[in-house]
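Predict the assembly for these two chains.
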Amino acid sequence: MAPSSGQRVQIPIERELQERLAWFIRLRWLAASGIFLGALAASWLVGADVRLVPVYLLGLAVLGYNSLFYRFFRNAEQAKRPLGRNFVYLQIGIDWLALVCVVHFTGGIRSPVTLAFALHVVIGAILLSRRSCYLLAAFACSLTGIMAAFEGLDLWPLSRSSRLMADPVHGIVAPLSLWIADAVFFGIIAYLATSITRRLREKEVILFSSERELDRLYRETAALYRIGQVINSTLEMSEVLSLIAENATRLMGMMASSIRLLDPNGDKLYVGGSFGLSPSFIHKGPVDLDTSLLDRETLDRGIVQVMDVVTDARFQYREEARIEGIHSVLCASISAKNRALGVIRVYSALPHQFSEQEEALLKNLANLGALAIENARVYAELKEQSEQRVWIARVTHHQLRAPLAAIQGVLEAVPYAGTLTDKQKELLDRATRRVQDTFDLIRDLLDLAAAQRPLEEGTVQFVHLNQVLQKIVEITREQANSKEVEFRSVVAAGEIVIQAQAADMERIFSNLLDNAVKYTPRGGSVRLEIAYEDGTVRAMISDSGIGIDAADQERIFDGFYRTQAAKDSGEMGTGLGLSIVKRLVDRYGGKLELVSAAGKGSRFIITLPRRVDSHSSTVI
Amino acid sequence: MQDGKYVILVLDDDPDILESLRVILEANGYAVATARSAEEGLRVYKSAKPDLLFVDLMMEEIDAGTAFVKEVRALGNTAPIYVLSSVGDNLSMMTDSSALGLTGVLQKPIKSELLLKLLKSKLKDV
């Protein structure tokens, strides 16, 4: 959620006040030790006649009240009770009381300990505000001023022996001038410390808000990515739209969201997905675009916000919205390719001025919605096309094959109906052959259509290639023998198991072996080799036949293309066989290579994965 | 047997297929009875008492062929029954057909030479 304007951001440095309090208390242990050591060192090193007993007593007092502070702080911490600035003021006040005494016993206003007031001014700048820091500085001035006055007027006389420095001037003048120097010093310290901490705080505010901004962007991007993934993995439009509505609601910290779609005529909106709305509000029925000013404006302008739905005349269902608890609405149009598809809305229970960031986020979500709607539409179209193709294939199969079978039956019967002349026999043979060619063509066209369809999940199983190929190898052997072509089949020892549809494997190998025998002249040879290689099945069908010219090698996998040499060979063919093989190999994510040259024979090398990758594009 | 000839019953809804088979079979000395529906087939079966049957299971009227075969079996048929089938016909129906106790499958388009060879070998045993 974007930070609302006017709401004060609590930066980490302030949240850290608790930690700093602990630090302040720890410092005081050091200060207390400093009092003991300092007094001792001064009397020993400088030879100053410091009155050690009262100073030590003061040191003990500091230790004592710091123990109380420490206990108080720990208790508050355990109770998870935050301690405010007053606790800081209290500590500083008591510290300064002690300090006044220490200063007095170490030489009055001339004592170097006076400078210790400055420490608290700095601590104030760190822990408290700028104003507090100046107040502390002023208070320090007052305290030292009062001390100087008492000293100068001899109201709280210093013992001679406690004077650390030589005292050339007596009376009020010396303490006064020292006090002025101290006051200027405290002022400068306060100025420097607050200047530095103010800059630090400003930078921290900037840093912290960019951190929050980054965090917001990250959450938005993650949500948009997740929706994108769902769009790609599901074709269920209502599921995707509901997910988008849910994310719009959560990311923007709203109460609800809805996505409504335009009907095909473009004059009504119906709910495509929603989140957080009551069933009665959702099922108000389709909204007429003519009567919904807000939706019309949204479709025209792209984005529209309504601060108060109950008083805004553009909002159609004001009473229903009031009952639902809706106060403000942000609407964005969903469109693709300049065509309006619908409207996405987010509803706020409170009066809400939507920021530019929120508008941009809703537009992004609207774009994802458009993508989901387009995807679903394209899928529906493809499904219809695919169903039509299946229908055509079925019609082709039954309606085209049945009459052809009848024609062939009749042609077959003609010789039995009476003696034919040679010319009649020849004509009959021609007709019979053309009918056979047409049968082959229908078979190949159906095969080609089947090979182009992606594999459906659950239709592949582990098949034993050796068994699948047994019959084809026998047929090839017969064909080769009758043509006096040598045929050798070299299949690797053991079972060759591959995940596939047996019929597809039959089509691939029967097409290639049939071609090999067909286009190899008498006396030539055909060879089939199958072996496992690096987790794949590698098959090679080679022949010593007419070969394929380099220029033709690209085109022979296109449908209905036959090389001149193939036509010249007198063999019949539909020109679809290699096209079917190529598509089938692609279907399994395999590879088909051809090594050939005109008159030098051909070698087809097929590499098929043993397992079909269910995540690849080949399987739906 | 009818006048010393084996009787063959052909059940198919395509009249041209029926006529071609009749010409081929009669030219080779068989008596032929034909029918175009399951009901007609049953009537003809009872009157002609065929020695062998050819049945198209994939007629337009779905299940007509299967129903005919079941009826014939119920009548205590012992004559071999061959199914006429087209390539690409539903294979699950074919497995059903083997459960029906069929003798074999003949693929359409039917080659006359193969058909006659089959009849010669099969009808000698009858």
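Chain B touches chain A through 19 residues (CB under 8 Å). Helices of chain B lie at 15-27, 38-48, 64-74, 91-99, 112-125.
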